[in-house]
Amino acid sequence: MLARQQLLDQLDLNRDKRLILIAAPAGYGKSTLMSQWQHSLTQQGVSTAWLTLDEDDNDPGRLFTYLRYALTGNTQPTGSIDLRRSILNHATLLADFFKEKQAPSVLFIDELETINDAESIRLLSMLQQQLPPGKLMVVASREKKTDWSLAKLKLQNELLELSDVDLRFSTQETTRLGELRLTGPFSDAITQTLTDKTEGWIAGIRLAMLCFPRMDDAQTWVQNLTGEMDEITDFLSEEVFRRLGTEQQLFLLKVSVLNRMNASLCEALTGEQGAQTQLESFCEKGLFLQPLDQQRHWFRLHGLVRQFLLKRLTQLIPQKIAALHDKAACWHDDQGYKLEAVHHAIAAKNLPFATDILESFSKYLVTQGQLGTLITLTSQISAQYPINTPTLLSSTCWASLFLHKQETAETLLQSLRTINDEQGLPEELLSLFFTLESLLLIMKDDVPSAGTLAYKQLPYIREEDHFERGVLANILALYNIGAQEYQLAQQYILKARAAHIKSGSCFGLAYSDTLAALRECQLGNLLLAKERFSQIGYDSDYQNFNDPSLTKQVSKAVCLGFQVGLLFELNHLDEAQQLLDEHFADAINNTIPPDMVISGCLTRARIAFINDDLNTAYSYLEEGEIAGVSASLPRLVKEMRWERVRFAILLGDLDAAKTFATQTDIDNIPDYPAGFLNPADIRGSQDIAPLRYDIHTGHTKQALTQIDLFLSNARHTPCRTLTLLVLQSIAYGLSEDTQNAHRCMIEALDLGLKIGSMRSIIDEGPLAIALLKALYIEWNKHPNIANNKRITYCDSLLLLVGESLAADVENASLVEDLSDRELEILKLVGGGLKNDQIADNLFLSVNTVKWHLRRLYEKLCVKSRTEALAESRKLGLID
Q1: Which of 56, 97, 348, 784 can pair with 325 through a Cys bridge, CB separation 3.0 to 4.6 Å?
Q2: Helix and strand numbers, DSSP H then E, in the chain
Q3: Contact at 8 Å (CB) between 749 and 790?
Q4: Exposure of 711 by Cβ count < 10 A (0-12 exposed, 13-18 middle, 19+ buried)?
Q5: Residues 677, 709: Cα–Cα separation, whole Å
Q6: Does residue 276 carry a pLDDT above 60?
Q7: Which backbone phi and psi does 136 adopt, to 5 degrees?
Q8: ∠ CA(500), CA(420), CA(378), 5° rounding?
Q9: Dist CA 790 CA 66 (whole Å)
C-alpha cells in the first residue's frame, strides 16, 4: 500500500480541527487514506473508532445504535420508541458519550453518501455541530453534504476539507505505485501520460497498471485511453477481468452479490473450498478487494469493481443470480446475520423465506428502535407476497403507530383482526393486539372510544404482560381525566405506573407520571403539578434503567408538551423555552396523544408572540399546522388556525381575525361525548376560541349565554373556569355593564390567586388589562383587608405587561390588618360558635364580641357572618 505521506502530514497538522471532510468521487482513495491515518494515530497512542455506513443506516434508530457502539462499546437495546427519529437530543446524547474519558478521540465515518434519510443526515449533522472540545470527526463521502452547517466551522478555522483535487496522484506517486506493483521497467513517459489521462484518478491508475504486464505497447495503449470515469472503469475492469483464469473469474462473479464476504460465505456461494487463499491472493495482487479487519477475516470489493462484476454477472450467468442470493440468505440466517439474510432472500425472490427471517427478528428490530428498517422490509415483501404471519404484522403495526403512519397501522391491524376472527391469534400476541387497537384510536384522536375499548380489553390481558397492561391503564387514566373522573384517573395512573416499572419501560413510566402531573393541572394544583413534572426522569424509579442519560431525554420528551404549557401559565418562560429548545423535535415525533403535541406547538408560538417576534410565532403555527396535516391530526390543524385568530385579536386586527376565522372549519374531528374535554380543550378551539371570537366581533349577548352554560359544567376544571370568567368580564365590559364586568374579574382574580395562574388573565389582551387597572386603582383608593392580596396579585400581573400605575394611585391608604383578637374571633366563628359561646371562650362580654365582629365586617367588606367566612377562606385567613 502506497503511503500518502504528504496528505498524512497535512492531517496530522490539522488534529486540532473539529471536522475533516474528505469528499471525492469513487476511486480517489478516501477510505485508504483514512485507514492509513487511523493506523498512524493508533501508533501514536491516539484512540480511534471507525464506522462504515451502509443503506440500512438510513434508519436513524439503527444509526444511533451503531454510533453509540462506536463511541462506548454499549450494545444494550435502545428502546422501540425512543429512537425512531433522530433529533437534537440523540445527537446531544452521542456528544455526551464522546466527552467521556474512555471515548475515542477521533471518530472515522466512511461512505456518508449512502445516507439519504433526512433524519439520519440530521443526526450526523447535529453530532458534528456538538462535538466536544478536543474531539475530531473524519468523514468521507462521494459527495459533499451541502446541508451540513459548515460555515461556522470555516469561520472558526475548525474545518479541513479535502477534495478530489487534493487526493489526485501526482506523477511521482504514480511512479512509486508502479514500482510497488510492476516487475518490469516503467517509463517516465507512461507515468506522465497515465497520470494526465486519468487526471490522477487513483482507481483508473491502479486498474491500468494491472493491465500493463500483458501489453505489447503500453505507451500507445495508455495514449488511447478516453472517456468518462464509468467508461474507463468498465474498460479497464474488462481488461483486468479477461486476463484472470476461469476459476478466478467465476469466483469474483459469484461473490459480487455480497456487500461483504468471508471465506465461509464465499465457499457457500461457490461450492469450492480454499476461499481464504483466493481472497488473500486477490488482495496481494491489488484486485480491488479490501480487508475490513486486521485479522483479514472480512473483505469487500471496491464499489466500482463490484459494479462492473454485477453487470458482467447479469450478462453471463443471469440464471444463477437468484440461487446465489438464496445461498447467501441461508448462510447469513444460519450465522445470525438476519438483516443481510432478509436482503438476500428478497433479492432471490424467495419471499416466504424472507418473511420467516424477518418475523424471527422483527421484535428485536422494534426493541432496537430500527422501526424504519422493519417497515421498509415489510413493505418490500408485501408488495410481492401476502404477509399473514401474526408476529411480523404485530411488530410492523407497532412500528407504524410510533412513526405516525396511521394508514399503514390501520391496514396491518385489519389483517390481524382477520387472522384473529378466522383462526385466532396466539395467546402471547392477544395482549399486544388489544393494546394496538386502543393505541390506534388514540392516534386517531378518539380518546373516548379508546377508553371504552380499553375497559373491555384490560380484563383479557395476561398478568405477565406488564407493558400492555400499563399502556391500557395509561389510556384509561387519560380517558378519565377527560371525563373529569379524577379519582378513577388516579387509580389507573397507579396501576399503569406499577405495570411499567415491572416491564422496565421508562417510556411508559414517563407517560404515567405525565398523566399524574396533568391531573393536578386540571384540578388547579399548578405548583404541585410543576413539582411532579420536574421529577419525571429523575426520581428513584428511573434510576433502575440501563442508560440514565437516555432515560432522562426520553422522559422529558414524553412530558414536554404539557410541562411547557404549565410553565407558560406560571410565567416561567425561560425554563419553558429551554425545554422546547432541547426536546421539542423529539416530543413532536415521539408522542401519540395529540394534546401533548398541541400544547407544545401552542406554547412555543405564544412565547414568541409575547416576545414580539411575530414572524417566528406565525411560522411556528404554520409548522404545527403542517405537522397536523402530515400526521392526520385535524384537531392540531384547527388549534393552530384558531391561535392565529387569537393573535390577530390581540393585535387589534379584527379584519385579519375574521379572515383567519373562515379557515377554522376543519373536517374529520371526532364527535366527543357531552362533558368530555381533551386537555387542550380546557381553553382551546372546541368552544373557548369561538367564544372569544364572538365577544370581539360584536356577539357579546350570544357569548354570555354560552359562558353561563359552560361555567355551570366547569366546576371541576379551575383553569377552564378562570378563562371563562375573564372572557365573561370582557363581554360585560363591551356591553357597558361595568358592575358585572368587575364582579367577574374579581372572581377570576380570586381564582387565579388561589391556583397560582399568571398568564390566563393578562393574555386576553388590552380589555382584560384595562379592567385590572380599574380594579387596582379602586382598591388602592379604598383599601381593606379583603383586597390586600388582590392588590398584590393584580400588581404582579400588571407588571408582567409593563403597566405602571404609580401615577394613578395617589395617597393610597395602607390596608388595615386584622388584629390578633379579631383573628381569634374569626376562627371561632369558623368553628360554628355563636356570640355567647365565643364570649365564654375568650372571657369577653357579648357586646365586645359584637364590636369586634363589626370591625371584621368592615375590614373584609362583607355584611354577614356567612360572607365573612367565605371571604376569609378565599384570603386564606382560616381553613
Answers
A1: 348
A2: 45, 7
A3: yes
A4: middle
A5: 15
A6: yes
A7: -140, 140
A8: 75
A9: 58
What is the separation of C-alpha 593 from the centre of its chain, rounded to a whole number of angstroms? 14
Question: By the 8 A CB rule, do 65 and 97 touch?
Answer: no
Determine the 3-state secondary structure of 298 from DSSP: coil
Q: Residue 197: left (phi > 0), alpha (psi -120 to 50), or beta? A: alpha
Q: What is the arithmetic mean of pLDDT over 631-651?
A: 92
Q: Are 518 and 493 in contact (CB under 8 A)?
A: no
**AA identity, residue 511:** Y
**SS3 state at 23:** strand
Q: Is 234 helix (H, G, I), strand (E, B) or coil?
A: helix
How far apart CA 745 and CA 94 sit, in angstroms, is 51
Contacts of 63 (CB under 8 A, 6+ apart): 53, 57, 86, 115, 120, 123, 124
Question: In the prediction, which pLDDT does 583 show?
Answer: 79
pTM: 0.72
User: What 3-state DSSP class applies to 4?
Assistant: coil
Distance CA 270, CA 324 (A): 8
Q: Which residues, in sequence order, are bridge partners of residue 49?
A: 107
Say how far apart CA 176 and CA 570 lie, in whole Å. Answer: 72
- DSSP one-letter code for 425: -
List all residues 6 or more positions away from 38 whose beta carbon is below 8 Å from its beta carbon.
Answer: 48, 50, 106, 108
Question: CB-based contacts of 122: which residues, under 8 Å, 6+ apart?
Answer: 86, 87
Model confidence over 326-358: pLDDT tens digits?
999 999 999 999 999 999 999 999 999 999 999
Chain center to CA of 680:
21
Over residues 179-234, the pLDDT tens digits come to 555 444 566 776 777 666 666 666 666 666 665 555 556 666 666 555 455 555 66
Smallest Cα–Cα separation from 491: which of 465, 456, 519? 519
pLDDT at 174: 65
User: What DSSP character marks residue 671?
Assistant: P
The 8 Å CB, 24+ separation contacts for 517-521 are: 517/559, 517/562, 517/563, 517/566, 518/481, 518/562, 518/679, 519/477, 519/481, 519/486, 519/489, 519/490, 519/493, 521/562, 521/566, 521/719
Q: What is the helix (H) or strand (E) element at residue 435, kind and residue range?
A: helix 427-443
Task: Give me the sign of the Cα torsion angle 130, 131, 134, 140.
Answer: negative
Q: Which residues pair with 138 in a beta bridge?
A: 20, 108
* Nearest 10 degrees: Cα torsion 223, 225, 229, 235: -150
Gyration radius of the chain over CA positions: 36
Q: Residue 465's closest CA among 491, 493, 517, 426?
A: 426
C-alpha to C-alpha distance for 174 and 156, rounded to whole angstroms: 36
Q: Which three cell numbers stand for residue 101?
A: 474519558
With contact defined as beta carbons under 8 Å apart, do 662 and 644 qualify? no
Q: What angle do CA 380, 382, 386 make, to 5 degrees?
A: 155
Q: Which grid coordinates are listed for 780?
A: 388602592
Could you tell me which residues come within 8 angstroms of residue 624 by beta carbon, excluding any fewer than 6 positions away? Answer: 597, 598, 601, 602, 605, 636, 639, 640
DSSP label of 261: B
| Half-sphere CA count of 377, side-chain side, radius 13 A | 37
**Grid coordinates representing 814?**
395602607
**Angle, alpha carbons 569-716-642 (nearest 5°):** 50
> Helix 229-241 to helix 202-211 angle, to the nearest 10 degrees?
30
Work out the number of other CB atoms within 10 angstroms of the CB of residue 216.
6
Residue 827: all three cell numbers together: 376562627
Using CA atoms, how far residue 656 sits from 156, 494, 554, 647, 757, in Å, is: 45, 47, 40, 10, 29
Strands in 159-162's sheet, in edge-to-edge order, are 48-52, 106-110, 136-141, 19-23, 159-162
Residue type present at position 713:
N
pLDDT band at 6 (very low <50, low <70, confident <90, very high): confident
Beta-ladder partners of 160: 20
pLDDT at 178: 63
List all residues 6 or more positions away from 606 whose beta carbon is below 8 Å from its beta carbon: 568, 617, 643, 763
The closest of 534, 497, 504, 539 to 517, measured between CA atoms, is: 534
